[in-house]
Amino acid sequence: MSYSKGPRNSRPRRGSRPPRFEEEGDTIALLESVGPVETPPDMESFDELDLSPIMRKALVEAGFTKPSPIQAALIPHALAGTDVIGQARTGTGKTAAFSIPILEQLDSLEDCRDPQAIIIVPTRELADQVAGEAQRLAHGLPTEIAVLSGGKNMNRQLRQLENGVQIVVGTPGRVHDHLQRGTLRTDKVWCVVLDEADRMLDIGFRPQIERIMRKCPRNRQTLLLSATLPAVVRRLAESYMQEPVVIDCCRNEMAVETIEQRYFTIAQDRKVELIERLLEREDPEQAIVFCRTKRGTDRLYRHLARTYHGKCGAIHGDMQQRERDRVLQELRDRKLKILVATDVVGRGIDITTISHIVNFDVPQDCDDYVHRVGRTGRMGREGIAFTFVVPGEGEVLTSIEQRINKLLVRDTLEGFEPVVVAEPEPEVEVEQAPARKSLNPMNRKRKSRR
């Protein structure tokens, strides 16, 4: 924001940083020298943060009352120009945590027409959501934000960039595409945000992310937000961040405390019957049913649409972006009661009215379970999650319980009692007749040809 140009330039930011470490061993030592992981301070009001009057008013307009833990911990460091690694569960206000300090330090469009901050997210839907949240927090001061993601009109994006933008929110593939075309200038970028970093790396975006980071000024600020911090995320931080502060808002729990988590054991061919009965019993305000495959999503959607006339939708990666946007908007507007989806909506989609999550198919990765379940219980609300476990998936269930450090509670419905795997009958030894000796087919004598 234009009023904060002075304070941002007066803070010990980019120019005061030590030179980058070039050798791998040095960067690892630099990351380890950060010291103890910080935990969030207790804050009762945004008045405890060094925010401008315009931002305080925007927060009131947006309905924010007190900082969430990740907001209380990250905003002061981000305002000071420090690199930050923030680990926080989904639904804890991460978007506002990095958007507020960026908006506070933006130069006006008259002073700088090139992007000053780039926010990278894994999905198109999350890009729209982050841009919308940032625009809402910019209330009171015009702010140009461009969304660069696949499935959107390229000519419109080109016009936006040509006319001047302050913040770019995009997916790795499309942002990298603009860099290759030369239509996205990065020499004025002073902040890069990697949101849902674990998901972006998990789906193979590391090459694009690294090229984007190398194109940005080396003395930039980098904010990395992730619900989990696997080794691949830590390696990225070691390579592209300088003396980062590590903030842990998870407190050793990977699942939101307000979410009740249960499971059913069920035969594969009875899962459709069970989902119908379960939705009838629970009568959710809104529910997301997760399937593993696109075909499975379409098949279950067609089945549930017969019961929930006009109140059931589906989303997966093969759908046109316009259709995906329409379905999500109907979900936000509460026109849909049931959404059947793949993991394309398992990350970052923030809809506070989701009361139920059903894992129709057990996720193949424990972190995907964490993110699926995180679609409910948003911002402290209560929620419930059910997981359907078929015979042979017991080890996956155990892995999930170890990951979240919590045991799931077995649930039952009349007529859907737990599946019991029958014990194999002991083998009875039968005396066999002596096997007839046979020649190896390769060694049998053949009739000679005449």
From TrEMBL:
Residues 258-427 form the Helicase C-terminal domain. The keyword Hydrolase applies. The keyword Cell cycle does not apply. PROSITE patterns: DEAD_ATP_HELICASE, HELICASE_ATP_BIND_1, HELICASE_CTER, Q_MOTIF. SUPFAM superfamilies: P-loop containing nucleoside triphosphate hydrolases. Residues 1-29, 424-450 are annotated as: Disordered. A motif (Q motif) lies at residues 44-72. Residues 44-72 form the DEAD-box RNA helicase Q domain. Residues 75-247 form the Helicase ATP-binding domain. Keywords: ATP-binding, Helicase, Hydrolase, Nucleotide-binding. It comes from the Bacteria. Residues 8-17 have a biased composition (Basic residues). Pfam families: DEAD (PF00270), Helicase_C (PF00271). InterPro entries: DEAD/DEAH_box_helicase_dom, DEAD/DEAH_RhlB, DEAD_box_RNA_helicase, Helicase_ATP-bd, Helicase_C-like, P-loop_NTPase, RNA-helicase_DEAD-box_CS, RNA_helicase_DEAD_Q_motif. One of its GO terms (molecular function) is helicase activity. Belongs to the DEAD box helicase family. PANTHER family: ATP-DEPENDENT RNA HELICASE DBPA (PTHR47959:SF1), ATP-DEPENDENT RNA HELICASE RHLE-RELATED (PTHR47959). This is ATP-dependent RNA helicase DeaD. The lineage of its organism: Bacteria, Pseudomonadati, Planctomycetota, Planctomycetia, Pirellulales.
